Input
Amino acid sequence: MAGTGKAHLRDSPDVLLRIEDLVVEFPVGRTGLKVNAVSGISLDVLRGETLGLVGESGCGKSTTGRAIMQLPRPTSGSVVFEGSELTRLTGDEMREARTRMQMIFQDPISSLNPRRKVRQIVMEPLNIWKRGTDAERSQKVDSILEEVGIDPTRAAESQPHQFSGGQCQRISIARSLVLDPSLIICDEPVSALDVSVQAQVLNLLEDLKAEYGLTLIFIAHDLAVVKNISDRVAVMYLGKICEVAPSDVLYENPAHHYTSVLLNSIPVPDPEVAVTKTAIEGEPPSPVLPPPGCRFNPRCPAAQDICRTEEPQLRAVGDGHFVACHFPTVTPVELSTR
Amino acid sequence: MSDLIQASSRDIDGPLLVLKDVTTHFKTPRGLVRAVDGVSFTLDRGKALGIVGESGSGKTILSRSIMGLLPPRGTVRGGSITFEGREIGNLGRKEMRSVWGKEMAMIFQDPMTSLNPVMKIGRQIAEPLQIHLGMTKQNAWATAERLLQDVRIPEAKRRLEQYPHEMSGGMRQRVMIAIALACGPTALFADEPTTALDVTVQAQILDLLGEQRRDRNMSLVLVTHDLGVVAGHTDEIAVMYGGKLVEKATTKGLFANMKMPYTEALLNSIPRLEDRSHTRLSAIAGRPPDLVNPPKGCRFAPRCPYAQPKCQNEEPPLVPTAEDPNHLYACWYPVGSPENTEIKVRIAASKSEFAAAAGGN
Ligand SMILES: Nc1ncnc2c1ncn2[C@@H]1O[C@H](COP(=O)(O)OP(=O)(O)OP(=O)(O)O)[C@@H](O)[C@H]1O
Ligand SMILES: Nc1ncnc2c1ncn2[C@@H]1O[C@H](COP(=O)(O)OP(=O)(O)O)[C@@H](O)[C@H]1O
Ligand code: SF4
Ligand code: SF4
Ligand SMILES: [Mg+2]
Ligand SMILES: [Mg+2]
Output
């Protein structure tokens, strides 16, 4: 099998979203080559869970998020959401399904229509889907705006550029909530915000999740941020999954060499601890010609011959903890004991 | 490499940069924006200074004021800036041109907007060398290649022939650093140089800046909103809030003995890897002040958990701590003082009273 394994998938009635063998490729001009953005990943998310997706720029996080939304449809693989196979839905059926799953993005200001008033922007999905009476729509929009900390009166009078970056992210969140979705995919929602606003937005997401019973996929490159908000984390590298684990376990007991690199790159706000050492040299290679075997092998300090020829499959190293590595830093659990 | 273009005139005595009561205000239809409002500090040769604060606290405008890179219209400047003993606070862009490159250079958050998209990387590095240092074209290109090697760009020779869009964000930031280093500046200003980058690339770029600073005996001013970024890469830290300097100390001194409630709040808002997941983050409520109408007393008072009536009426001056004359802070009830401890006790007591009342019905 060419994929990176499915040992980590759960067999539970609470699975809200399950993606299997997801592949997304983009052609490179007319060269006949292709960008291997996502290369056969499998993931599931339980109802009410927050799944974190981490990895360096270009490793396929956003592409995975968009492929779940079928924007565009993946090259191959399966995406089952609330029991229906999204890859087989017609355009209309998919538009309907997208009301149940929403996406928010990194750049809050440019993801909002600059010419509309903010209250209109938040109202728009309700108008398109003709939900409720005018009065009901108004009431819903105002209560959600209050909820995210935006004054509805000001929202009715002002355009996005009159709000700060953090406020625009709150507005995007409000808009994503009006149709009562069950899943929200947050693509680097705090990467462009400063640390204090980042903390406000992360706390807000936690509160809204509890209040609206949401399920979240949270994409970021900073593992400290991802750990704070997620129940479970999947680490991606060059279109593949390296490791899946409960957030606390991933930090306490990282099993993949790349996870350790990500952990060691986070700046420590303490001059006594902050030893200056570069965690890793260079950058990921091009996804047009990914290295054979384990895709991390050219940068891995522990790489052996087998890593250059054979692709590691995900296998269990602990309770809910899975790693795709021939020589993980945590000893794999024997199959017989599972 | 021994023939690095070293920072010029390194051996003159005295501080490199002295700011005295620097103000930079902008005339706007809404009124006067007090972006930088009376900032004084000294930077020594070869040292790395971090300037930290939330968005809109005046970090960029302060570094641009020093560089003389301000909009020509509607800008009102005051105070004094001396660089190597020479007053530069009143120089225009034209006069500053001789200072840029050789004396001071700057790198910005978004390398794409500061690189010329239609010019080869090699030419973008070589041209300033020909203009500022009078190098021959051949020499300048050879130096450009070596600069790319210095900033750890693999296959430097091939990269000289590339355009910015053919490189990753991290690679472009390295090119920006190479351009900034080209004429051997005495001081390098880096404004959020890693905010647009991954954590892995951020670590690489910060290490690169530190290494180049040491090799070239250059001063570095690192502007960022993240105390984590400056902790391991600076000798001193200046914290700005609402256009003012509110705390300044050695990096070790600041973390060991934080005085300003604002600095403490900034530090506490960073998610910690060692905390369990779903740990509530201590966000700073509200937003930084409107710089057209800043609060009358302490500018942090509307958001400060320890604010007292005095804070709303009287502006706290920047004063040294009892232990360290070089550790400055501006607060009436500094963290760790008996007065602050008393306020903390009162807050804790009223919280538990509230909890008792809520639980008692
Ligand atoms: N040309 C200008 N005219 C009017 N106001 C300005 C101008 N440039 C900056 N300001 C204002 O000055 C204040 C300080 O801006 P500055 O760019 O220095 O903030 P900063 O601390 O660098 O923030 P960030 O972290 O967002 O980069 C802000 O309120 C900003 O809106
Ligand atoms: N529409 C597209 N056409 C071609 N390549 C793309 C497209 N979208 C993404 N890619 C490429 O796919 C890879 C993964 O991209 P992305 O999912 O955006 O990464 P991440 O979000 O992890 O930074 C990258 O190499 C990127 O350049
Ligand atoms: S499989 Fe080999 S190259 Fe890949 S992470 Fe494990 S040890 Fe490193
Ligand atoms: S002066 Fe008062 S309001 Fe300002 S930081 Fe100190 S305690 Fe807080
Ligand atoms: Mg992305
Ligand atoms: Mg700035």
About this structure: Chain A is about 30% helix and 20% strand. The longest strand of chain A covers residues 15-27. Residues 237 and 296 of chain A are 7 Å apart (CA to CA).
